[in-house]
Amino acid sequence: MATTRCPDCHASLVVPEDPTATTMRCGYCGSTVVLADAEARRRHAIELEREARLRAQAEAAAAREQRQEARAEAERREERRERRRGRWGARLMTLTAVLAAPTIIAITVFDLPARLGFGASGADRLKQVSAQLATTGCTVLAPIRSTYATGTVSTLLPVQAQCIRVLAAGAGDHRTLGLRLFAADGKELAKAGDTLDPQLAYCAPAPTTLRYEVVVGPAAKGRLSHMVLACPAPTAKGRE
Ligand SMILES: [Zn+2]
Fold first, then answer.
1. Which domains, ranges and CATH numbers included, belong to the chain?
2. Model pTM score
3. Which residues are close to ligand 1, an ion, with C-beta < 5 A?
4. What's the mean pLDDT in 119-148?
5. Which of 1, 111, 166, 168 has the fewest C-beta atoms under 10 angstroms from its C-beta?
6. Of 213, 202, 125, nearest in space to 169 by CA
7. How far is the CA of 25 from the centre of ligand 1 (A)?
8. 151-180: b (≥16 Cβ within 10 Å) or e
9. Which of 119-128, 172-181, 198-207 is most confident?
10. For residue 98, what are the contacts with CB-CB under 8 A and spacing of at least 6?
């Protein structure tokens, strides 16, 4: 708080706050006091004004910056949320992969040899059965065919007027196989129950093209073999 002295009564006077004031009235004697450093106070006033302007500018800049910061923060938050969502997607994918892995491994590692044709296919069993049946007069009509199968295997079979015997045997997952025989018109002629090596017999009264199916068990996969023998007509006693 600046003070000055009245030139008349020498009272100590407080200089008014207003920096633009160049004179003041003495409160004691009433004479007009010229404020000595009017020029300096004017400069000071200008300085104050400039400072105020600068402060206002700085405040405006700060406010602007704050707004930008808030906007950036909001963007970052949104980005984080999206990333989190992305992470969940990735986690879901990972979970799927983890759940699917055993299946994939089972297929590729344990099942691949069978797919590629290695390992048992039931063919050796069919050889044994056909060798046994050969002693009863059967001959090979369609030789052993081995295949990897996860579903029904369908095969066409042209026959004369003759009796046939269809054999199938499986390996791998194929614990039970079924056999079904169909006429040219699609009618089912014979079927054999679900066993590891089913057989079915049928006597065609005239030349025709038959079709037989080797039916695999549910979700079973692996190799299986099938063949057809031509056998003598069964006697009444040995009829099946
Ligand atoms: Zn005075």
1. 3-76 (no CATH), 123-231 (2.60.120.380)
2. 0.53
3. 6, 8-9, 11, 26, 28-29
4. 91
5. 1
6. 125
7. 8
8. eebebebebeebbbbbbbbbbbbbebbbbb
9. 198-207
10. none
